[in-house]
Amino acid sequence: MAGRFRIGKRFRFEAAHRLTGLPEGHQCARLHGHSYTAEIILAAEQLDGRGFVTDFGDLAPVRTFIDERLDHQLLNEVLPFSPTSENLARFLAEWFIEHVAPGIRGRLERVRVSEAASSWAEFEVIR
Ligand SMILES: Nc1nc2c(c(=O)[nH]1)N=C([C@H](O)[C@H](O)COP(=O)(O)OP(=O)(O)OP(=O)(O)O)CN2
Ligand SMILES: [Zn+2]
């Protein structure tokens, strides 16, 4: 049967931010923190010989990158853009495509970032 396989792996990190460009008094303009989740979602039409889209273990560089670059950071100090969930999702997608994608079979479909259980933002890769 024709179809597509999709896998995802979630990475948690803690970080603080303040959002810029918001109206006076907006709560998110104040310094505050989130327990973030970044989910990497890959897709493939065919599985490899192990029955994988990509071994989840091959996504370990994402953990390392997030730990070194984002975890327990003030995001405004370490990122050159306003640290919204949308911008973080695109940032992680761009990094993944440059540093991880060339070495794996599955293709990056989207990155989803959550600041809280009730909200998320995605960057979808359009090819
Ligand atoms: N589209 C986006 N909207 C907002 C973002 C964002 O990244 N993308 N971020 C924020 C702030 O970071 C804010 O801290 C979170 O907003 P919000 O979910 O509204 O805050 P609460 O935790 O107070 O939400 P409740 O579920 O209502 O308690 C704002 N908007
Ligand atoms: Zn916030």
Topology:
Blueprint: E1 5-17, E2 32-44, H1 60-69, E3 73-74, H2 75-78, H3 85-99, E4 107-116, E5 119-124
Parallel strand pairs: 1-3
Antiparallel strand pairs: 1-2, 2-4, 4-5
The ligand Nc1nc2c(c(=O)[nH]1)N=C([C@H](O)[C@H](O)COP(=O)(O)OP(=O)(O)OP(=O)(O)O)CN2 binds next to helix 3, strand 4 and strand 5.
| CATH class designation | Alpha Beta
The radius of gyration is 16 Å
CATH architecture assignment name: 2-Layer Sandwich
Task: Compute the number of structural domains.
Answer: 1
Q: What is the chain-wise order of helices and strands?
A: EEHEHHEE
Determine the mean pLDDT.
97
CATH superfamily: 6-pyruvoyl tetrahydropterin synthase/QueD
Global morphology: elongated
Describe this protein's structure:
It is a single chain. The protein is an alpha+beta fold and 127 residues long. The chain has a single domain (5-124), classed as 6-pyruvoyl tetrahydropterin synthase/QueD (Tetrahydropterin Synthase, Chain A, 2-Layer Sandwich), CATH 3.30.479. 23% of the residues lie in helices and 35% in strands. It has helices at residues 60-69, 75-78, 85-99, and strands spanning 5-17, 32-44, 73-74, 107-116, 119-124. It has a five-stranded mixed sheet. A hairpin with a 2-residue loop joins strand 4 and strand 5. The longest helix has 15 residues, at 85-99. The radius of gyration is 16 Å and the shape is elongated. The two termini are 24 Å apart. The mean pLDDT is 97. Bound molecules: ligand LPXRUNBV and zinc ion. The ligand Nc1nc2c(c(=O)[nH]1)N=C([C@H](O)[C@H](O)COP(=O)(O)OP(=O)(O)OP(=O)(O)O)CN2 binds at residues 19, 28, 32, 84-86, 115-116, 118-119, 121.
